[in-house]
Design brief:
- Two copies of one chain form a homodimer.
- Chain A is 55% helix and 6% strand.
- Chain A has 171 residues and is mostly helical.
- Chain A has a two-stranded antiparallel sheet with strand order 1-2.
- In chain A, helix 1 crosses helix 5.
- The longest helix of chain A is centred in the C-terminal third of the chain and has 26 residues.
- Chains A and B meet through helix 1, helix 2, helix 3, helix 5 and helix 6 of A and helix 1, helix 2, helix 3, helix 5 and helix 6 of B.
- The first copy, chain A, binds a DNA duplex (23 and 23 nucleotides) through helix 4.
Chain lengths: 171, 171
DNA sequence: TATTGTTATACTCTATAACTATA
DNA sequence: TATAGTTATAGAGTATAACAATA
């Protein structure tokens, strides 16, 4: 149980005899230079790491982050069609077809033609889909997100989430 | 000039007559459900948006985020070889070849065989590469990162960067 | 034998056009 | 004609194996 209110990035300035500003890189280590201050770079690196950990934590139920997001959205919005679900997740309709084929093939959800508009496919989670989602959610909460809170603290996680959401929405 | 110290995500609870908890979604809007609390999802969405804006801001010098990161690293570490630069950026050596071909083809950097180890290609920015990098850096600072600071504030940007770096490093 | 840069290759994501069946 | 789901396809990004030159 590490401190759950860990400070985020204490630079720990002041050592014995730092020559100037940047820490000397002894011909073996590369200097990150201004890369360290680039938000996009940090975002990408963190995102890759988080997805990697997600994949590992949710491995028992064999769901990718994208698949998990689809199941979550189907659960919160039963009876919607493919276009609505896909566009909400930023997935293009053509690319959503194969994704759904996989999920439906595993019996996690079903497509049914809408009686109102026979062009649309109404999407619903199956019981197995709901059970799988529940198992995945527990894994995400107790392993994935829990480890993250352990690393940066609960308040920081909330602040981080808020900033990311704001950027995605308003930037 | 919007407030540069903008609050990040004030939920603004308490309206006139909210039925229960979640805001009612009137058959036209989808409920994000627990997706809103998933850090990986927020990370991905924010990263996509930030890269999109980066691409737009740096369009005058025609550099992708990945290419910009290579030039930055070459500038901070002149005389390194391909393997060192690539692995530092998390790029696999085979995939770095075409990237370098493009940059070298535009005259932004050069490969020269090392006299010590004739297997290695020493990488160096050209004058044109340094000039292009300088132009790109100015665009990133004055447009891209500046807009981000305008959106979330300078302190929040610093905190965000620190958390993302910590996650990439230690998660 | 091990390493550097390279080629070839494959698999995933993403993006666009166009088809079909419905409306 | 317009829309929903679909197919085909092309382009990035990413991953592994293997080869030639060099150590």
């Amino acid at each position: 149980m590490t401190s759950s209110k860990a400070a985020v990035g204490k630079p720990l300035r002041a050592r014995k005899e730092a020559p100037a500003a940047e820490p000397t890189h002894e011909a073996g280590e590369l200097a990150m230079g201004e890369l360290a201050g680039l938000l996009g770079y940090a975002l990408k690196r963190a995102q890759l790491r988080v997805f990697e950990d997600f994949l590992h934590c949710v491995a028992p139920v064999q769901l990718t982050p994208a698949q998990f997001s689809v199941l979550l959205l189907l659960d919160a919005n039963p009876g919607r069609n493919q276009t609505e679900i896909a566009t909400t997740l930023g997935i293009l309709r053509p690319n959503f077809v194969a994704m759904l084929d996989a999920l439906e093939g595993r019996g996690l959800c079903v497509r049914t033609r809408s009686p109102n508009d026979r062009r649309s496919h109404i999407l619903m989670l199956t019981d197995k889909g709901r059970a799988t989602l529940a198992r995945a959610k527990k894994l995400v909460e107790t392993q994935h997100e829990a480890r993250l809170v352990e690393l940066i603290g609960d308040d920081n996680r909330t602040a981080l989430l808020a900033m990311l959401a704001k950027i995605a929405r308003e930037f």
